[in-house]
Amino acid sequence: METNNTQEIKQSSYINVFLLLILLTILTLSQPAIMHLELAPTLFVQMGIAFTKAVLIIGYYMHIKGAPSLFKKMIFASFILLAVLYTLMAIDTYHRYVSADYFIN
Amino acid sequence: MSEAVANAEPEIIFDKDGNPHEVVDFNNDYIGAKLGFWLFLFTEIMIFGALFLVFGFYFIQHQAEFVESSHDLNRLLGGTNTFILLVSALTMGLSLVKLRNGKVNAAKRYIWITIILALVFVTIKYFEWSHEIHLGIYPGSPTLDAMENGTKLFFGMYFTMTGLHGLHILIGVGVMLWVLSLINNGKVNSKEFVVLENTALYWDLVHLVWVFLFPLFYLIY
Description:
- The complex is a heterodimer.
- Chain A is an all-alpha fold.
- Chain A has one domain (11-103).
- Chain A contains 3 helices and no strands.
- Chain A has helices at 11-34, 39-61, 69-96.
- In chain A, α1 (11-34) runs antiparallel to α2 (39-61).
- Chain A starts with 10 loop residues before the first helix and ends in a 9-residue tail after the last helix.
- Chain B has a single domain, classed as Four Helix Bundle (Hemerythrin (Met), subunit A) (Up-down Bundle).
- Chain B is elongated, with a radius of gyration of 23 Å.
- Chain B is an all-alpha fold.
- In chain B, 76% of the residues lie in helices and 3% in strands.
- Chain B has 8 helices and 2 strands, in the order αββααααααα.
- At the A-B interface, α1, α2 and α3 of A face α2, α4 and α8 of B.
């Protein structure tokens, strides 16, 4: 039986997204040379670029943009799950963590 | 297909409007195959997500040592590997496009290019690790044990995360070789390509992890 319900995928969209990703990668590598930033802004810029790349990869390379809404909902749910996990951990760490206690015998 | 199944009357079901539909082989469920694979990818995201969380946790506690240790990594080799993975994600995607358009040989060629790029990635990683091990920096080494706590944690996370990522690359190579054999057998073709599509999804996830891993380890200065 033939595979049904498939999305059309185009070579041109792969190439276009690839060019965008190359541009963003060049930006990632050249950021320290073109912008002299403190640690926190560096992280913010680098993670911003990485997040943009992730959206492009998930949207176009992994074909989520034109996928059935079930797939989109699943990805959204997993993103929320990770966000909850990270937030709980951050709150816990902020309120009761004693610095470097894992090296105390 | 057995003779009994081949000769059986097709089973018909009706939708709400009374239109008949033939019940088809449930082993060939394209959406189900992709959905199942996405569930697997989520378990991968939870594994790497937890590791990134641990990295962030230690990073906040030992910022100076993490930044200093990041300087010791080879940015040229790391950057080269970033471009290699980027190109390999493209060739993997193009293999799917070619297979779906019935260009089987072109599809196989693109898969082989992806395999070669993956092996180049692992080889570069091998040289990077060898250099660090040569300097006496590896988990549990006397040199590393004598260093600051933050440095120990940075390199511990570095070897764990790039090691786990490298393992995924090697598994990916194995899966691609398996897909090539399926294409050669005609089991994966221009009509039934979900195995290759899921392999491409896996490869995109491996690429995705590196997109975050590279700046966090190599570019925090």
